[in-house]
Fold this sequence. Notes:
Layout: H1 4-13, E1 17-19, E2 27-32, E3 35-40, H2 50-58, E4 66-70, H3 74-83, E5 88-95, E6 98-104, E7 110-115
Amino acid sequence: MRDLDTSCALYLRLGFKQIPNTTYPGIRYLTFGHTWLILSDLLNHGYHNAGRERAATTGPLGSGFVLTIPTKDLQAVHSLWQNEGLPVTLEPENAPWGRIFMGLDLDGYEVLFEQFPEA
């Protein structure tokens, strides 16, 4: 993450909960139901080898990674995305299983939002 606290705040506004962490100041632990999301400071991560550090700090962020988040109000999340000035890569549309839209977060990671039909 280029700005760890700003990225963390965005995901908290999307419904994630933060797990307290005083051991590692460059990491934020978040949960969404049974899903964990770990945000880390891009330049202060503690990579496990030099190749991974080089790829993460010089390569295009977000390539090949999509985070999917279910929501009960797709339009509200789409409005939040637009109000934050974040790129929308797929405007809201119907999918066979519900409504979806996709956008890029603050660091260029693609996020897919899904709203399932009421049962």
